Amino acid sequence: xxxxxxxxxxxxxxxxxxxxxxxxxxxxxxxxxxxxxxxxxxxxxxxxxxxxxxxxxxxxxxxxxxxxxxxxxxxxxxxxxxxxxxxxxxxxxxxxxxxxxxxxxxxxxxxxxxxxxxxxxxxxxxxx
Length: 128
Hints:
alpha+beta
């Protein structure tokens, strides 16, 4: 009897399944971690940071400081399209680099966070 139920369940799923999709997207350029060690606090000028990493994605100004913001986004999105319901989950993570400059244009602080290595393909509500 359980075989018949399993077969009927599989047939029902196949009958209502329209298709599935897996997509992936990236925004920005990956941050090269090895170049971060070349930025020395209190020593490295703004022009050298730009030559090492490139132009920032965003510049924030305030309190006699300039902050260069570099970012990289990674998104993964699987989806299952059924006749009556669609299941789609998007997982987006980002890497962010902030370089703080004093009013003389010298790097004061470097803050880097990497999370894109934790981006996963997960079909919600199934999985963790």
